[in-house]
Amino acid sequence: MRTLELHQLAVMAYLHYREEWTQDDIARHMGMSRFKIMRGLREARERGIIRFEIDASLLSLASLEVELGRAFGLDSVVVVAAPSPTEALDCVAAAGAEYLENNIQSGAVVGVSWGPTVRVAASLLRKQAGKSITVVELMGGVNSSATNHAAALDLARAYDSERRCYLLECPAIVRNRDLRDSLLAEHPLRAAMEVTRAADVALFSTSDLELALRLLEAGYITSDDLADLRRAGAVGNLYGRFLDAEGQECDTSIRERTLGLSLDEIRSIARKICITCGTDKLEPVSAALRGGLINVLITDEATATALLARRELDNHTRAGDGRQA
């Protein structure tokens, strides 16, 4: 190939990849057909005139995102690197805030749960000018009012939607089913739950069984309840509901005493965004994925790697038992 022809390939490559010209623009500029430009760009790649490089650290994260999405049938995955385990929450929360800013559209009804990662993510949101949403809570609370509602209130403020923020002013778990039904029949709570059931986005984190111990200390459940959860195979909590390893709600009396959406109602929400980090959350996240309770996952590299390893182990185990994964 003559020098002039090499020069032409270099010009095509420069205009397309550095100046971001379209192939049609280059064809007009060089007096050639679009087909010849397309063929020339391909030849430039083959001859090494065009070379692509991807940062190895970013490639690792991108690979994890693709593998997680494929393994669990997720719509979207974001994996972030954290300098240390103690910084993972802040890194994942920042990624969660960025995802929300880019993907929550005006008019959305967003259901929010409590949890430190979600709370930090909501606090990091920038003002979303021109966007207006409705914010609802997915379950009652377990701590002080300020902590319970912080994520919902921060989310509403970011979208200038304080007047369309519906809070569930009630405990997450009450002493019996009759009391739960009585509370749900009261107008303020009934009206809030009606809006909650219209949610098209759910924003939440996961908790391990440490939450059950805190509920016991706070008086929401009894030692008998805790024993029942353990017998039922509880591995964690999602949306205020205790899950077994398959992502199904544990069949204990707590199920009938919980104020919030049921897991079937959660599954019907179009976008279920889980923002979570830490390998201590491996069991509840794995369960939620098996139960179809997550379709958008935002997490740290260590948790993502552990989830894939667990998935591979489960596949081997199920194959040995003659079951499908």
Description:
This protein is an alpha/beta fold and 325 residues long. It has two domains: 3-46, Orthogonal Bundle (Arc Repressor Mutant, subunit A); 56-320, Rossmann fold. Helix content is 50%, strand content 11%. The chain has helices at 3-18, 23-30, 34-46, 56-72, 88-103, 116-123, 145-158, 177-185, 187-196, 210-218, 223-231, 263-267, 282-290, 301-320, and strands spanning 76-80, 109-112, 134-137, 165-166, 201-204, 236-238, 241-243, 271-275, 296-300. Helix 2 crosses helix 3 (34-46), helix 4 packs across helix 14 (301-320) and helix 5 (88-103) crosses helix 6 (116-123). 38% of the residues are buried.
CA-based shape: elongated
Q: In this structure, how is the largest beta sheet organized?
A: 7 strands, parallel
Helix count, DSSP H or I runs of 4 or more residues: 14
Alpha-carbon distance between the two ends: 54 Å
List keywords for this structure.
elongated; 14 helices; single chain; 2 domains; Arc Repressor Mutant, subunit A; 50% helix; alpha/beta; Rossmann fold; 325 residues
Summarize the SSE layout with pairings:
Blueprint: H1 3-18, H2 23-30, H3 34-46, H4 56-72, E1 76-80, H5 88-103, E2 109-112, H6 116-123, E3 134-137, H7 145-158, E4 165-166, H8 177-185, H9 187-196, E5 201-204, H10 210-218, H11 223-231, E6 236-238, E7 241-243, H12 263-267, E8 271-275, H13 282-290, E9 296-300, H14 301-320
Parallel strand pairs: 1-9, 2-3, 2-5, 3-4, 5-8, 8-9
Antiparallel strand pairs: 6-7
Helix pairs in contact: 1-3, 2-3, 4-14, 5-6, 6-7
